Sequence to fold (212 residues):
Amino acid sequence: TELHGESVQRAYSLWALGLVVWQNEPRRATGLFEQSLRLSRRSNVPLSSALCMDALAWIAAREQQARRSAMLLGAAEALSQAIGNPTVTVPHLRHHHEECERRTRRALGDRAFEAEIRRGQALSLADALALDEEPRTAPLPRVDAATILTRRERQVADLVAQGLTNGAIADRLVISPRTAQGHVEHVLAKLGFTSRAQIAAWVVGQTRNDQP
Fold:
């Protein structure tokens, strides 16, 4: 999909991969869902946006972020209703959605839960998608670049850490800007990150850890 500039099926594929790992690797899954959200927003695909926000609500509930979870549930429901789809489109995933609702309602109480659901439902599409940009303060994981990133992706990560834009990375590596953007998105997904600043911090940490 990257070679052909396709983003719709790529967004769905990232969502599916997030589903595979979310229970054991919630941080990585969050990065995958958020990357899918960015692609969905660019391609104007509200269904995949709703699916990702619903899944992000599951993670937020497990991490005891009840208000965020409820707002994400409300936003996902509103997007799904707007296009005439149920929030949960895959039947065997329904129990995760229902467990999330129970956990969040129990944490907030009925009145606060319903209030946060309404807040999520009232968000504009842009504001709803921005819910995935909530800053995180969890420590960055120690990841072995040799086994996770390809040689080219590690080059791109190093250039991101130097503050280069996608265009500048493309010029430096003699590749197209679209290809450079794809490499950056792959690095974000593989490391479970959501921002270039996290890539930069990770590169710095890897460099320090590699020093004798």
About this structure: Confidence is low (pLDDT under 50) at residues 133-143. Residues 145 and 154 are 7 Å apart (CA to CA). The chain has two domains: 8-133, 145-210. Residues 26-43 form the longest helix (18 residues).
